[in-house]
Amino acid sequence: MSTHSGTVTSTRGRIGRRLVDLAAGLGLVYLFLPIFVIVMFSFNQPVGRFNAVWQRFTFDNWLHPFKDKALVDALKLSLEVAVIATVIATILGTFVALALVRYRFRGGQAVNFLLVLPLTAPEIVLGASLLTLFLEPHLVLLNHNFALGFTTIVLAHIMFCVSYVALTVKARLRGFDWTLEDAAMDLGANPTRTFMRVTLPLITPGILAAALLSFALSIDDFIITYFVSGPSTTTFPIRIFGQSRTATPPQINVLASMILFGSIIVLAVGTLLGQRRERRLNKAT
Amino acid sequence: MNERDDQGRKRARLSPWLLLGPGMLFLFLFFFFPLYTLGRMSLSYRPSRFANPKFGWHWDNFSNAFSQYGSQFTRSFVYAALATLLALIIAYPLAYVIAFRGGRFRNILLGLVVVPFFTNFLIRTLAWKTILGDQGTVVGVLRDVGILGPTGTLLRTPLAVIGGLTYNFLPFMVLPIYVALEKIDPRLIDAARDLYSNTWRAFRKIVFPLSLPGVFAGSLLVFIPAAGDFVNAYYLGNSKTSMIGNVVQDQFLVQTDYPVAAALSFVFMAIVMVIVVIYAFILGTEDIA
Questions:
Q1: CB A54 within 8 A of CB A44
Q2: B24 contacts A114 by C-beta, under 8 angstroms
């Protein structure tokens, strides 16, 4: 009796297992469907201004990826914003993470909670509240008015990246062996030397991961940026949004595909290097 | 000697705050303080259409926000809830298979989940507009099969908007569930099997309850941005599917009726924050992060 029911469940179990695999496979297909369309339409030769209906295969768009000057300028601006915002957010966020992981102090739990809050606030509220800040007439911070533009965009991007950086670095620092620092100090290294030669190299992968994340967040952000950008500062997403009402040139798809493939390469190289590093560390210990 | 010791200890007490200082000051200036200016703006009024708003305890901005845009509020939360549920249904098997059957390919599979999101949010949504377009294959097939009438469309329907929201925030569901599943000690499942539990029962009694923190975190990470989004409704919907994000965006940037727009965003944030605080109270902040 018991063996009988056992075989029955195992067949049922096998079917169930197949169904779960199938569901996961379909999930991946769903994830990649629009990506496939984006890449495919980068080879389309659209009729009219909208690249929305498949017409004819062409290499033209890839041969002239930078044909749309305004789009390329927008992409350049996005890269510039992302680099500056990432550098500043990574420094600020890493310091916060170090403080939280290394020291036990009153208010640490509260700081944790305050860090999570910006991540849980809807983007539209973040954008709207920053806009009201920058519009505030008697708030002439540092004696000059915040005209909406480059500065306000960078400030906004740093704001939403800091929490992500702090939490990512913090997560990576959990389980870090702080006695290594004591060892370095015992061997005569001063605090600066200890930090530069021991701590920093060990926490660098976590910081790099956080920097990559904040770069990706910054370059992709539309909603917050839309609220705090001025008429003469058009980032890549804002250009696409503004343009999409009147035209969608296939160069959008070409540039998007380039960014996609570039990111995949960065991710792959990063993973490989990380694995090699881990193997080396395992061998060393 | 004693003095130096004292100084050293003092410095140790001070140094976390020195490290925290710049970052937290930044967050205070550009996250917390703007919420105050938003609140102030929501109680202001405009003396005339193009005049700068003046502060003056105008609570009627809030009642106006509710009475005029109640349907958009409801729609936002209903759409976001449905998108969250759909994302959960799609993400769970995916996270489960990666965590328990990914083996050597775990990292590659995880990478595959994230890779689609390296293309811009707007471009992805535009791609869905192409896929669901009236001249597209999907609508063609659905019309041929008779699921859609001969003039039926997918674009400009609630279904398209909810589908877009589900898609755009899906990784935020997959990753936390994966993290929760990955933490589960496989010996627990072995133990259940040794005690004659079948796979389904082991899943129901052990795996699923242990993955709940991931499910909750993922739900929040999908629900919040989905409720506040205006891009999906803009590209995939029509005026009958507009969400609170569309109204806020329009009031702020097109109508420039800042007080009403601020009141709208404030009410919206208050509702979301209540949900988050209840949630943080139940699970603790560590799990959200």
A1: yes
A2: yes
Q: What is the pTM of this model?
A: 0.87
Beta bridge partners of A44: A57
Average pLDDT of the segment spanning A118-141:
82
Which tokens is B90 given?
Answer: 């799609």
Contacts of A148 (CB under 8 A, 6+ apart): A131, A134, A228, A229, A230, A233
Cross-chain CB nearest to B34 (options A16, A115, A130): A130
Helices A236-243 and B121-131 pack at an angle, to 10 degrees, of: 30
Please tell me the distance from the alpha carbon of residue A81 to that of residue A91, in angstroms, as a whole number. 16
Q: How far is CA A140 from CA A136, A144, B37, in A?
A: 8, 6, 13
**Which residue in B has a C-alpha nearest to residue A224's C-alpha?**
B249
Give the CB-side neighbour count of residue B132, counting CA atoms within 13 A.
24
Amino acid at B273: M
Please name the residue of chain A whose CA is at the shortest distance from the CA of residue B117: A260
Q: Give the angle B159-B161-B164 at the CA atoms, nearest 5°.
A: 105
**pLDDT tens sequence across A81-101:** 999 999 999 999 999 998 888
Q: Average pLDDT in the B30-42 region?
A: 92
Model confidence band, residue B3 (pLDDT cutoffs 50, 70, 90): very low
Distance CA A224, CA A134 (A): 13
The CA-atom distances, in angstroms, between B57 and each of A116, A125, B45, B92 are 30, 21, 9, 47
**Cβ separation B269–A38 shorter than 8 A:** no
CA distance B167 to B162: 9
CB of B133 less than 8 A from some CB of A = yes
How many angstroms from the chain centroid is the CA of residue A228?
19
| Predicted complex ipTM exceeds 0.90 | no
Pull the structure tokens for residue A146.
């915040």
